[in-house]
Structure formats: structure tokens, C-alpha cells
Amino acid sequence: MPDPRIFEQVRYWMFALDPLHVGAGQQKIGRIDLPVLRESGTNLPVIPGTSLSGVTRAYAALSMDRPQCSGKGGAEGQSHCGDCPVCHAFGWAKGSSGSRQGLVQLFTAHLLLFPIATTRGPVWITCPQQLEAAGISSGLPAEMAGVSSGLPAIEDGNFIVLKGNFTQPQLDFGWLYLNKLDGLQDSDLAQWRFPSRHADDRVSELQPIPSVLLNKVQQCVLVGNAMFKRLVDDNLEVRTLVSIKPETGAAEDGALFTYEAIPRSSLLWFDAVYNNPAIFNATIGSNGSRAPMEMTALRDVMNRGISLMQYLGLGGMNTRGLGRVWIQS
Description:
Number of strands: 19
Shape: flat
Structural class: alpha+beta
Strand content: 25-35%
Radius of gyration: 22 Å
Distance between the termini: 26 Å
Order of helices and strands: EEHHEEEEEHEEEEEHEHEEEEEHHE
Largest sheet: 13 strands, mixed
Number of helices: 7
């Protein structure tokens, strides 16, 4: 029986195994030569869907022994076969011979949990704005129910405990104190539910954050939206590097630069949409034996691509120890 769905949307969770640098180009901000890309509305770091799509395509093509179908396929796309699962999933362009948009759409990855060093060890922070953007629907403390989407308005000098045994009335970031709001330590991060899967315009599944990722978060607090932005800005990783002159092995004059990165152990999320190949009459196989392409084939291409990101990385500075991520759906 043909699949009646027009599309399927799936939620993915990304855990940073290394610092992540997806840069905004050569636009110096203060002392930072290479800042990370930020969303214009919130000014928070994001990873754009184009970065995710390009890397996923490249790694999927590598995994499926289709290197000619990675990237843009040459100057005019002449290397794209236009007929394999990679080309169907991410599109192809063969100059004057035609082109087709990909059947997989990857969207921007947003921060959900951000780690910060405190006097009691690493603490992950989040805020109502980021939880609402991720579509949280249940699992919050009873005291939070009935306020907006179940999330409280928090003054920027306060925090709410979501995970961990916080016995002290304040949380010390070394340069900033936040005051604990009592009586709200009833939340279990494992009980949070987010839209995991959409079939057409209907949410068909609500699922928690995968436990293999959530178990890495030992302490977590909820802070105000403005405070979240401030804490993220002040705790992005900043490194200073220098280019080496290969002839001498010494530092090159004028080549000292700084860049910032999303720190290791950050948790982000993004969505992927799989368009039904049957609607586009997509088929795969040799000329003598062709069969309609199914949505499971698109998922397989996606899984092959993202599975290599924990080894080969994402974004810039991969050769300098950055970029590895662990992605789960």
C-alpha cells in the first residue's frame, strides 16, 4: 500500500563532544576575530540548516561510496548522478540537463542546555524561551502549570532547580550570584516531552530527550530569558590561535587570531523533514530493475550521514580538535 503521508518531520538531539565553531565569517566583534553564527532575533548561537545539510550529504556519500555525489558535484553539478539515494535526499543539479530539490530538509539547530562552570561544578542552564521554542509539552513541575505554556516568568536574579541537589540558597558562577526559588524542585528532565514526530500537520509522537544524552547532564537549572542570553555570551569558549609558517615552523607575523565556539557538552536540537518520494515519482535502482523510493530510504541516508559526525565533526576548525557531535533522534 502506498504511503499516504505528504511528509514526516523528525526531531534530532545534538550533544557536543567537542567545542563547535560554525562561524559568521570575517566580522570581528570586539576582541573576537571569528565569532560563531548567531540568530538575529535572539542573538544566540545557532547551527544553520545549510551547515547540517552539507555535512550530512558529504558523510552519507562517503558512507555509500558515492563521493562524486557529495557537495555541489563539480562546477556545474556534472558529477552528480541524479539517481542515487544521496542525490534524491539532498538534490542535484546538472547544469542545462536539469536539477531537482532534495527530499530531505534540515532546519537550524538551537541551544537547549548550555554548560557553565560554577563553584559546585558544571551546571547546565536553560530558560523558558528555549524550552518553548523546542515545543516542550509536559513533564514540568505542577507549580509551573497554567502559566503561558506551563513555563514561569523568572526574574533575572533567580533560578529554579531542575536537576541536582542544590542545598545552598545561591548559585555562584564566580562573578555572579543567582538566588534559588524554593518549592519547585519537582521536575524530572526524563519526563519532559517534546514533539518527536509529525505526520503531515499532526503531531503523532511526544518523546523525551534520549536518556543516553540526558544522563550526561548532572545538574540543571532554569534561569530567565535575558539572563540565559547573558550567561551564554559570557561563557562561550574563546581560543587564541596562530598560523605557523611551514618553511620555518615558527609563528607567522600578523597571523594571531581568536575565535569563539559553543562549549563541549552543550545540548542542541533540530528538526528534519522527509518529503514523500512517491509524490515526486522518485525511483532508485538500475534501468532494468527500478523500484519506487520509500521514506525509509531517506532516513537511511540521513542516519548514515549523522552517524559519522561523532568521528569526523561538524563546522570549522576540525583539524584543531573541534566539531565532533553525537546526534540521536
